[in-house]
Amino acid sequence: MNSRIVMKEVEPKAYETMFSFEKYLSRTKLTPIQKHLIKIRASQINGCAFCIDMHTKEARVLGETEQRIYALNAWRETPYFTEVERAILALTEEITLIHQKVSDETYANAARLLDEVSLAQIIMAIIGINAWNRIAISTHMMPPLD
């Protein structure tokens, strides 16, 4: 793969801004597992190998199970996720695939299960990982060989 710019070296202020956004997300009501489910699922949809690698490793450290991580791309077909997690994953998919629209049904279900602040924070977390995916993919960031 051809080498491309290293964003944090070429535009450090932009990178710092992204990390400031991550600091905001770290102070939200979302659990660390909820945040990682969002990050992993959006990264799977976007095909971001760098982010999938990073966030699956972080999720494991937090206690996420291999079974749930492996089944995440087929979450609808498993009993492994709670009703709230299912609502979060549905929103993650539809916001990540925004060109297909966020359905009223998906939004209403999430709004029924979550308070407005949590819903806003989930939307912001989804937006954040999609931005990171776009940085990593467009600059060919590669996961390390362990």
TrEMBL record:
InterPro entries: AhpD-like, AhpD_core, CMD-like
The organism's taxonomic lineage, starting at the top: Bacteria, Pseudomonadati, Bacteroidota, Cytophagia, Cytophagales
Domain of life of the organism encoding this protein: Bacteria
Native organism: Rhodocytophaga rosea
GO molecular function annotations of the record: peroxiredoxin activity
Gene3D superfamilies noted in UniProt: AhpD-like
Protein name listed in UniProt: Carboxymuconolactone decarboxylase family protein
Residue ranges of domain Carboxymuconolactone decarboxylase-like in the record: 12-94
